[in-house]
Each structure stands twice: as C-alpha cells, then as structure tokens.
C-alpha cells in the first residue's frame, strides 16, 4: 500500500518514502502538563494514533515518540497560583492525560520522553549551535540567531517581516536581533533550574522537542506531526535548531498538521464559556469516549472540526448501528480481504478517515443483508462487491478495518446495555422476575414488569427462549 500525506513543508500531497523502509520514525509534540486535556488536545492524539496504526500495518517496524513537556513557564505559573509543588502538578496531570487518552482508545506511543530527563541533550545542542555560529550567549540567556539560517520561514511560508509580525516578539536587551528566540534562559531561586555553562537556568520550549527527537529518532526522521497552530513559531524553530545543530536539510521529511477544533462553530475559549475538557465528554457515559473518537475521525484531519452535543449524539447513534450488527449471532468467518483493503485504501490517501468510515458503513449494510435480508442494491452499485457475502464475512472485515481506526473496541452486549452502570443489576433482576412470572403463566405480572422496564428505557428482545436487553 503506497501512502500519501499532505506535507506542510512542500505544501502538497507527497508519496511517502521512509528513510529506512524497515523502520519508520514518527515524532509528535505532546502535552504541556499543567491542566486537564481539552478537546483540542485530543485531536492530534487520535489523528496520529490512526496514522501510527496505519504505518504499523504497512511497515515492519515503527517508532512513535510523543513527548511530555514537564518544564515550562505555564507549569511554573500554575504552581505559583495554586501553591501545589511542580512535581505534583506534572505527575497528576500526566496520569490524567494517560487515562483520558486511553478512554479514547489511543495507544501509548513507543517512547514518551519527559523534557526534564533530557536536559544534558538540550545543553549539548545549545553548545553545538553556539560553536557553529547559529546561537549566542548573552546575560545568562542563549538565543538562536535567526539571521544565521537563510531558510528560516520555509516551513510556515512566512517572509522575515511577517515572521516578526506573527511572533510575540519581546524586545529585550540580551537579543541581538528582534526575531531571535530563546534556547535557554536563567532561573531565579523559585524557578526550576539546572546548572549549565551559562549559569543556572532552564530550556525554552522549542529546544526541548529538537533535543528529544534527535536523541530518540536521530537527526533526520520521517514524519513530524502536531496541530496546525504549532507550525509557527514552534515547528519553524525546531526545524531551524535541528538543521543548524546537525548541518542537515529538513529535520523530518514529512510535516503533518491537523486542523483546529471548534465548539458550536466557535473557537474554544474560557472567556466564551465553551471550554470543554476530554473529561467533560467522558462524563456523559460509557459510550462517550468512543463516540468522541468517531466524531474526531469523521472529519478529515486537515479540516476544521466542529464539536457539538448533537454531533456527539449522532456519533453514538452511528455506533449503536455498528454494535447492533456485531451483537447479532454470526458464523465465525475470515475477513474478506478485498473488503478490508477497499475500506482501508482511503487512509493511504492522506488519511481520508471520512471515506474509510463511509466504506465501513457499506460493509455493515452487506453484513446486515447477509444476515437478515433486505436490499443491498445501493451498496452493490457503489462498491466493487455486487453480491451478498457469506454471513460473518463482511462483519469480520468491519472489525479488521476498525482496528486500524481504533473503533468498535467495546463488547457489543455491554455497549447495547450502556456500559456497566448502577441500574444494570436492577434490570437483570427485573428480567429474571419476569421470566419466573412467564414460567408460572402469570402473564399479567410478566407484562407489568415489561412495562416497568419500558418506562426505564429498556428494550427487551425475546429470541429462542432467551431474553436480551438494551437501552432504547
Ligand atoms: Zn514540539
């Protein structure tokens, strides 16, 4: 399968050719751990989770590194406001992040470097940049000399004037040029710091990713990912640092960026009152993590994505349809390989998850027709499968494709019962009581219990002497 990705560096869709086809290397910027992950933080995690699952299907070995930024001025500010020690804030927030991303079925990356464990590499990179004439030390700071790198701006496509206008440029006495950015800065007694040739200090955010990615993946690797908002200045600066420190051309050959996430059509912000954390979504029920993942994948990753409660509920209904199909008894069957490849094919075309999902729906229809009858004429007309498959065949194909998308990981029976909830035991007891009434031919009592369950939103299905239930 030949993969293609839109490359921010070339501004076009490029065929993907790994540096080493036996070992694909991917780096994605991870969270700064000072607060719960918000919806915008989840989007790159899920997008690059699908990308890494796809790479693993195509290539024999993949190393996916995603960092934890655990030294940053936002963390320091949070500690000052709350009085909580920095180490406690970063440990708790990292654990929360792991739990939330696991609830979205995002697999952990292969390597998850923490910035505080790579300080010697950051200091070493600053020293190399100084010795090569790309950086200078001034008043306890180390700054990157933007004028020393003529390609600066090539990733974001900005001219030097636009770069100055776009950056929050501080005019500071230690800067030789207004566009120069900080690699290392001094720390006072209250701020975390490490000894360095320039005194006690701490790294700037950009140098953290350059040093960690180089240490783990090498000076040049295949794919660098992150949100679109990171292109400038973060990725532009990473690229400049890494290329100048190593005398290389590109740092990463493919720069892949996801679009922004809106809430009810507006940019999410605390002042607008539409700020939502992943945890807010997960609190809606056991179904919410998967529904939110589907919501993230049904829009192409480069487009702006609009979150709303209505959209989340649509995704739940969509998953209900898939789980209804999966809950039905079907013979064990091998996945139809042609169907699997057909549904996965769009992912190779710049991760076209909306089209892959549309094809997954068609496979679901084929399975339903194979099992319970009905018309597949529309599906036959638009797919290369103008026949009704053996029962179980399309179902197995759906599950195989869903693994790459990271969907349909719940037990179908539990899904239909709304997850393990507090009243499940009560419902099971009522069903047992109804069953006993039926055995005793006490039809009035059996109907009364059924009515009670219906009022609770529980739908009973009696098939072959067995009663199953789901929430209607
Ligand atoms: Zn980064």
TrEMBL record:
Cofactor entry: Zn(2+)
Instruction: Tell me the first and last residues of the signal peptide.
Output: none
**Motif span ('KMSKS' region)?**
267-271
One Pfam annotation reads: tRNA-synt_1e
Keyword Protein biosynthesis part of the UniProt annotation: yes
The alphabetized UniProt keywords are: Aminoacyl-tRNA synthetase, ATP-binding, Cytoplasm, Ligase, Metal-binding, Nucleotide-binding, Protein biosynthesis, Zinc
Cellular component per GO?
cytosol
Q: Which InterPro entries does the entry link to? A: Cys-tRNA-ligase, Cys-tRNA/MSH_ligase, CysS_C, Rossmann-like_a/b/a_fold, tRNA-synt_1_cat_dom, tRNAsynth_Ia_anticodon-bd
Give an example GO molecular function: cysteine-tRNA ligase activity
Please, one GO biological process term? cysteinyl-tRNA aminoacylation
Q: Where is this motif: 'HIGH' region?
A: 31-41
Ligase listed as a keyword: yes
**Compartment(s) where it occurs, according to its Swiss-Prot or TrEMBL record:** Cytoplasm
Location of the Cysteinyl-tRNA ligase anticodon binding domain: 425-470
Listed binding positions for Zn(2+) are 29, 209, 234, 238
Q: What is its EC number?
A: 6.1.1.16
Annotated residues for binding of ATP? 270
Question: Do you know which NCBIfam families this protein is assigned to?
Answer: cysS
On assembly, the entry states: Monomer.
Report the family membership: Belongs to the class-I aminoacyl-tRNA synthetase family.
Can you say what this protein is called? Cysteine--tRNA ligase
Look up and give the organism this protein is from.
Rhodovarius crocodyli
